[in-house]
Amino acid sequence: MNNATAIALAGLFIAIALYCGGPRYQLISVNNTTNPAVWKLDTHNGDLTLCATAAGKDTESGCSAKMKQF
Fold first, then answer.
1. Which residue, of 7, 11, 34, 63, is most buried by count of CB atoms within 10 Å of its CB?
2. pLDDT digit string, tens, across residues 1-25
3. 27 backbone dihedrals φ, ψ, rounded to 5°
4. Count of CB atoms situated within 10 Å of the CB of 65
5. Are 39 and 30 within 8 A, CB to CB?
6. Is residue 9 within a helix (H) or strand (E), and if so which, with residue range?
7. pTM score above 0.70
8. Is 40:51 a contact under the CB 8 Å cutoff?
């Protein structure tokens, strides 16, 4: 194996490790005064789920109980 191939493979392995080791979900908080909400974004496939609102309406059950507090 030559030097360029080894560097390319090492870069590929590092990229895969960073993708798999990173957080899968990201919380997005919308803090406006009329209707605050918390959304859960799946960073692997882009799915967006409404986790909590101030009124408690239209929320999904897949979110943690800690997110449902305002």
1. 63
2. 789 999 999 999 999 998 888 788 8
3. -90, 135
4. 7
5. yes
6. helix 3-21
7. no
8. yes
- Is 50 a residue whose pLDDT tops 50? yes
**Where do we find the tokens 């908080």?**
29
| Angstrom distances, CA of residue 29 to CA of 36, 38, 40, 52 | 8, 5, 9, 9
- Would you say the C-alpha torsion 58, 64, 68, 70 has a positive or negative sign? negative
Geometric angle at alpha carbon 53, from 29 and 36, rounded to 5°: 50
Task: Report d(CA 55, CA 46) in Å as an integer.
Answer: 25
Tokens of 43: 């960073």
Distance CA 35, CA 59 (A): 13
